[in-house]
Design brief:
Blueprint lengths: L1 H30 L5 E3 L2 E3 L5 H7 L4 H33 L5 H13 L3 H13 L6 H25 L4 H8 L4 H12 L1 H17 L2 H5 L8 H9 L8 H21 L1 H10 L3
Antiparallel strand pairs: 1-2
């Protein structure tokens, strides 16, 4: 019975892995293939790096999307951390009027589907002249990123004993010194997890980037949606596949960098 169970687990693992690996492999193979040629009756695709050069080189359409995505994602990650770190500390260490209700309201913003905010944002952003700008897109993302990063930070802080704060105050620490010298080093796993989720949302979002941008601040996922929406008009599958694969690389690199923190976060942070 143990052998049968082990074999079933292996089969399930292989099946699940294939579901994730096959689309990635297919995308990569299309990105390095040119138009297929016929060799001895068999269709053989040529190895071709022109799609990658088109996507990453020069100052063309795809390169602008990559730059816009990087700028917006980095800005969102930094702003979300700068806001959520003190906010998480306040929610877990300081009691004030309606603190629990405000924290719950934070989470309801994250629970709401993005389409609920699309029309109001579009109208307000046009009125404020920040439509199709980095500022408008980043502000829209903050409504969703700050709640989740604050919740992550607060979850970790809830596991840090308050006696540490009391001992620091007895030793003459003020709140700022306590937070920077003691709390922040203990929050490294939380910061890693928050960075990952903040980056991931901004880097992979397609909906807001399509509604709130047009040319100047259009991110790579929004460009992919535009390119793949031209079915019947000649889709450039090679450059689109190369651009799609590019969207995976930063996330995988960040995930590898914070992998141990994410693991600790799911174990100790009550995520």
């Amino acid at each position: 019975m143990k052998t049968i169970g082990f074999i079933l687990r292996i089969i399930i693992l292989v099946f699940v892995s294939a579901l994730f690996i096959i689309p990635i492999y297919f995308t990569f193979s299309v990105s390095i293939s040119s138009k297929p040629r016929i060799n001895e009756g068999a269709i053989v695709p040529d190895f071709y790096l022109g799609h990658w050069i088109e996507v990453t080189g020069g100052f063309g359409y795809w390169r602008a999307g990559i730059i816009n995505s990087a700028i917006v994602s980095l800005a969102c990650m930094l702003i979300a951390l700068l806001v959520s770190l003190p906010a998480g500390y306040v929610f877990t260490r300081i009691k004030f009027l309606a603190d629990k209700h405000l924290f719950f309201w934070f989470l309801t913003n994250r629970m709401a589907p993005p389409v609920v905010f699309a029309i109001p944002y579009l109208m307000i952003w046009r009125g404020l002249k920040i439509w199709d700008t980095y500022t408008g897109l980043i502000l829209a993302y903050m409504v969703f990123e700050i709640p989740i990063t604050t919740w992550i930070i607060a979850s970790f802080l809830a596991g840090i004993p308050k006696e540490i704060d009391e001992a620091a105050y007895i030793d003459g620490y003020n709140t700022f010194r306590l937070f920077t010298k003691i709390i922040l080093p203990l929050l490294r796993p939380a910061i890693g997890v928050a960075m990952f989720f903040a980056w991931l949302f901004a880097w992979t979002d397609m909906f807001f980037a399509s509604v709130l941008t047009s040319v100047n601040a259009k991110t790579l996922p929004a460009q992919l949606l535009t390119a793949l929406g031209k079915v019947g008009w000649g889709v450039e599958y090679g450059p689109a596949a190369a651009a799609g694969f590019v969207t995976l690389v930063p996330g995988l690199m960040l995930l590898y960098w914070v992998r141990k923190y994410i693991l600790r976060g799911f174990i100790f942070g009550r995520l």
